[in-house]
């Protein structure tokens, strides 16, 4: 190991693609994030990434990060490739997309792929698609097949029983070969090097589903710690060594290293997108005021909500059902409890508190079913940059809330996978010890903990169930029009 060697990490998300360059001790040298174009929603609940946006954004992010990088790019010794889970890419023989990548919000992802278009040669995930783009290999991590794929949940191999496999309607010859996470899947091709600027011949390492990669990059271990992941889909996670199929409050995913499993609670669909929505809804007045204060709109709203709004928002609550579950199409987002004193900053803080209380309840249900005590939380994602949001999490959860130096921990996780694949560290424990860097901790404020506990347990946790009959009736009315 030398200080002059680097790892390039790719963190593909629903709203953006981030490329970061790390040294071998986990310090981020530089990074660049390219915002993805909006998901195209159409027809009967279809959702797609427009055109070839995942690959185009990756190319753009690579070129931009190399403009920032002052080191020698020939010292990049590996690439860790991470991308969104629960998506589907349909490719032709040449490896190009036949149609846009289907987002995890697309209802077609609730059932197996059925071969209807002769132009389709390969059916894979986002990690499989980007692996082929970068290396030409038809290999993919076995840890990113979440959903109706013909994969054995115990062995994480394609089903070898023909009858079982055929029930999934996806031809075997159209599927990539599966490899473990933290495995070298190929090398950067000449074409990929020209497209991205990554030197030809650099090894590319597999990772896992994006949440497992994020858990690894956050330094999550099995010690009563939960990770709250603030993304388009917000969830809480813990790790363990046992695959579970009999749970109610959480489900098990393959982890980002062999033999590891990620336990994931129920979550919030379009979670952080709701924070963006409320900011945009408040309009140009907020933007202009923020500009006058020399701040971003997000920072300005955080300042207002922290200084002018008391915990609990004087009884204004937000239920985060902005995107209904496929089996519960009647669900709708709600803000309830307005009075004449409420302003935009109350609405903004109410969204933050709604996210924290929803995830507290989901995390607690997971801990209760596992029979363990929650000791602390780590919060990752762009939302953890806000001091107010971090304090709300500490107060609502009633335990210390930590954040790391790199709050987009999926990029760190991708770098760790590459480091393990290259043999830089012998195991997960040592890689995490050397490459995950803590930033700070927020301690719960006792009076706020008591208030949030009271309103959560006696009011907030009952709102969705109390409104459900009316929302079902409303859905019936509008469904028939």
Task: Describe the protein's topology.
Layout (H helix, E strand, L loop, with lengths): L5 E7 L3 E8 L4 E8 L4 E3 L3 E3 L4 H16 L7 E7 L6 E3 L30 E3 L1 H10 L3 E3 L20 H5 L10 E3 L4 E4 L2 H7 L6 E3 L4 H8 L7 E5 L5 E6 L9 E5 L6 E5 L5 H12 L1 H9 L4 H12 L8 E3 L14 E3 L7 H27 L5 E5 L6 H11 L3 E4 L4 H13 L6 H8 L2 E5 L3 H34 L2
Parallel strand pairs: 1-6, 6-12, 9-10, 13-19, 19-20
Antiparallel strand pairs: 1-2, 2-3, 4-5, 7-8, 11-12, 13-14, 14-16, 15-16, 17-18, 20-21
Helix pairs in contact: 5-11, 6-9, 7-8, 8-9, 9-10, 9-13, 10-13, 11-12
Task: Describe the protein.
With 481 residues, this protein is α/β, with parallel strands linked by helices. The protein has 13 helices and 21 strands. It has helices spanning 53-68, 126-135, 162-166, 190-196, 210-217, 271-282, 284-292, 297-308, 344-370, 387-397, 409-421, 428-435, 446-479; strands at residues 6-12, 16-23, 28-35, 40-42, 46-48, 76-82, 89-91, 122-124, 139-141, 177-179, 184-187, 203-205, 225-229, 235-240, 250-254, 261-265, 317-319, 334-336, 376-380, 401-404, 438-442. Strands 15-16-14-13-19-20-21 form a seven-stranded mixed β-sheet. A six-stranded mixed β-sheet has the order 3-2-1-6-12-11. A two-stranded antiparallel sheet has the order 4-5. Helix 7 packs across helix 8 (297-308).
